[in-house]
Design brief:
homodimer; 324 residues; mainly alpha; two-stranded antiparallel ribbon; 17 helices; globular
Chain lengths: 324, 324
């Protein structure tokens, strides 16, 4: 079972959300239209909308209603990406030029602000105050996380806990909230939305760990950007933390990271990548990711055995093994 | 009558909002706390909260309820200022170092995102969906305006209409919405909130025109930043537009603006300031501002003659004449 097969069953509904996504950023302002559509077309897995749609099937599924959750969550994700690209000084993402490199930093900043504001505007079509409270709380955490990631750049003394809290805010929270709000907007019972929240949280943790692994093991063609982007900007990820805890390699690795930092990331990071790839660190990170996937699937126990449940399990397995 | 006297009558309530403002950005994250409180302490006239409180007196005034409007509106205003400082490359605002100059651009961007998110979180404590719909719509327009202002930098071919639409989005809308939502959150009748919206809109237009005039006529001590900041970043304001329409001065002024643009604003702008100050352009801009104040006050006719109405009129007059 792969993601495309699951998606193909939901093709019509995903296409509808995609249309609403495009409409949502419509504006008479030529440049904002261009930057927003550029982002849209850069694509992405649309994993948040898919989770909203699947979670919605545990209640009274109403596509028109839950697109008001699916669209904002994808928009919020996109807005954070544009702002991150400003910070990361990234020129490409998913093989496409970033807004900040095609236009400039200020255009990227304002495009992010605009998309974010549009996200809220779409969400306000739903009147259940819990939805807005949960959503805005999650967004605050995401923002704290954005700032937090700066603080930990090149910090080789950080703990596993620092890393896990960071990826929770960066990725897991919005996926958790996608599942939770898809259920709430469909009037599913509270224990159902709580279970789906936990599912999304664990899947999100595994998702980001896989992402961090791929940045170390993938090729430029697979990633749409050169491998080692994380360390070049100072982002210390799970396999690197494991390697730093290995006395055999620790001092060499510290020296290599210090070298990269000194050169502001503008250097060949092949030596660094080899050090990480040649040890058992990727494997260890993979094991933690797999444990999160197991926990995600466990969270679903007790939910009715509908098709969407099977799909969530399949997606979780896919995320645990994905190589792109 | 001056603003301080009006404020002094509302001192207790304003102090309460101020406390809630500070609490609203509270976070365990040391740097975000520092940047947010730095912004808080930079002060400002808190004109949006004051309008919310006054508008609230046209309904069932409940401070605890309407602070959930007053606080977010001031926070949203602050968030746009931080992001604008990134774009404007401003080192000081109100005589204080800006976040982007005390820290850096990425800290300023994320601080803005964070404050904005907190604004939403506070607002979601109110459950009337109209509030969120009106607020998010206004924010979208503000964002479009942010982008729009970039497009018009140094554009000497822009029309009066371009300028007015820009200051509407930049300033008048959020002030209009402050008045409107203060009334709505206090369950004032629809025609009352509509009148207050119009009042806020006209006052906001006059406010920004005065602001633009002061940047041309004020001293560094009065402004907390050097005069001529607008033209240095390419912002063509009302008196300049009037001057550009004067055939006597037009070609000299075009040459001077071209010179400033060529030097990226890094030049003495005294010649430019003299050209504007020595003609009737400031006066003409003042007249338009005064007309907006008249319209603002007209908008209040038909509202009950409570103390808040008199205060709104006094504030409008104050704004029409303010020299700082």
């Amino acid at each position: 079972m792969n993601l495309l097969q699951i998606y193909s069953r939901m093709k019509k509904d995903i296409a509808y959300v995609e249309r609403r996504l495009e409409e949502s950023v419509h504006t008479d302002h030529a440049m904002l239209k261009e930057t927003s559509l550029h982002l849209m077309k850069a694509g992405g897995k649309r994993i948040r909308p898919v989770f909203v749609l699947l979670a919605g099937q545990f209640g009274r599924y109403d596509l028109e209603r839950i697109q008001h959750i699916a669209v904002p969550l994808e928009l919020i994700h996109m807005a954070t990406l544009v702002h991150d690209d400003v910070i990361d000084d990234a020129d490409t993402r998913r093989g496409q030029l970033t807004v900040k490199s095609k236009w400039d930093n200020r255009v990227a900043m304002y495009t992010g602000d605009y998309i974010f504001a549009k996200a809220l505007m779409v969400a306000t079509q739903l009147t259940d105050p819990r939805i807005h409270q949960l959503l805005s709380k999650a967004i605050v955490e995401v923002c704290v996380g954005e700032m937090e990631q700066i603080r930990f750049f090149f910090r080789t003394d950080q703990t596993l806990r620092d890393y896990l809290l960071r990826i929770k805010r960066k990725t897991a929270l919005l996926i958790a909230v996608s599942c939770q709000l898809g259920a709430i907007a469909s009037e599913a019972p509270d224990d159902v939305s709580a279970k789906l929240y936990r599912f999304g949280y664990y899947v999100g943790m595994a998702f980001q760990i896989r992402d961090d692994i791929l940045d170390l093991t993938g090729t430029e063609k697979e990633l749409g950007k050169p491998p080692g982007s994380d360390i070049r900007q100072g982002n210390i990820t799970l396999p690197v933390l494991y390697a730093l805890n290995d006395p055999v390699i620790r001092s060499d690795l510290l020296a290599e990271i210090a070298r990269i930092q000194q050169l502001d990331g503008q250097t060949d990071v092949t030596p660094f990548l080899s050090m990480i790839r040649n040890g058992p660190y990727i494997e260890a990170a993979d094991r933690l990711s797999a444990r999160y996937i197991d926990k995600a699937i466990d969270s679903l126990s007790g939910l009715p055995d509908i098709r969407a449940k099977k799909d969530l399990i399949d997606i979780a397995h896919f995320i645990g093994n994905r190589s792109y």
